[in-house]
Amino acid sequence: MRSTEFIPIFAGALVVVRWAAESGLSWLNRRHVRLHSHAVPAAFRDSMDAETFQKSVAYTLEKSRFAAWEDAWSSGILLLALFTPVLPLLLSRFRGGWGPGAWVDALWLFAAGILLAIPSLPFEWWQQFRIEARFGFNQSDQHTWWMDRVKGFLLGAVLGYPLLVLILKLVGWLGDRWWIAAWAVLLGFQLVMTVLAPILILPLFNKLTPLSDGTLRDRLLRLGARTGFSARSILVMDGSKRSSHSNAFFTGFGSFRKIVLFDTLIAQLTEPELEAVLAHEVGHYKRGHIPRMLAVSAVSTLVAFGVIAFLAAKPWFTAAFGFPAGSGLAPALLCFALLSGTVTFWSGPLMNYWSRRHEYEADRYAAEAMGEITSLTGALRKLAGKNLSNLTPRPLFSAWHYSHPTLVERESALAGLPQGQAANGAGSPVLEAPPAS
Fold first, then answer.
1. Active site residue 281
2. Span 119-141, pLDDT tens digits
């Protein structure tokens, strides 16, 4: 069998098998949730009432059923994109109208991305204005929702298009070694955006205001002082503008770090609980999780560019998807991007296992910094209730899709800390080094 015949069969099988596996996992999880929906889990009967639990079950099942339809639709669109002549014909029109070159090929990639994103818009809209609204989470309006997408498109044009042009031009400038330079360019771009995004991009979507003077600000500053963690500012984001879901995060790095708290989070938690949440985030920094994640991302991106370079040099790869032989880097780049999710899907459990270890370490750090576990467990329980989290996921589904441990797992790990360890406080030497493996 020739490569141009085998590659489409193999690629189609990858898409279908991934869809079947995801459908099976989702079905098993829904079945597991229904089997355990008769009563609040024993561990949470003192913190969650039956009505909230039943609402969380309904929310979980509704989202899962909807996601199954969305995944089937997305898989169908992917197959159409790969095995119909739409994208090759579009490339031919672009090159025929404006001539070959990096600027034209980048424009084609940008246009292809828009075309492939349009079919998902009805699902995104339904998720926001039907499901999220039905369960009391949606705070957005039509104008805000559509403007978010327009702004995203414009940002892609302003930032993404020139980056694509530069990557494509590297082939002509550097020949076979273009992919190493492309990796360095993309890595540098990501690092720069880590600093600039909170300053230039985030304010386009949300209003950020400094946390006002008061006991909460004083408490968080004291936490930073005793843990040796400093941030340039503590900001409050109007997350309630779009959703009643809550969150907290850091942006930037080094002297550019900023702490961002959703206004919904401040409204839902007590000050000690907010301090514990922030201590957890500090734990990610103090335990070195961020550099590790950046390193893994950098290596993964380098490997991806190496694979793209190999495939782009093989005429049979793009020819298998209807592109003329010698079409260049752009078609190979797009085909790789379309198929990458079908491959990385299978690495989900491994990546989640690694991420969960980080979460356990950050929880442990927070318990040590607080000198107790009550504030952190209280925050986790409140957030689970407010966000209608699934308290009874099937373990296999959880391992495949949850980057964080379940609430039961996190509480069990916290409760299992050695006697007195959580009471050592931030002055304990254990804060100075990561916990043992």
1. yes
2. 999 999 999 999 999 999 999 99
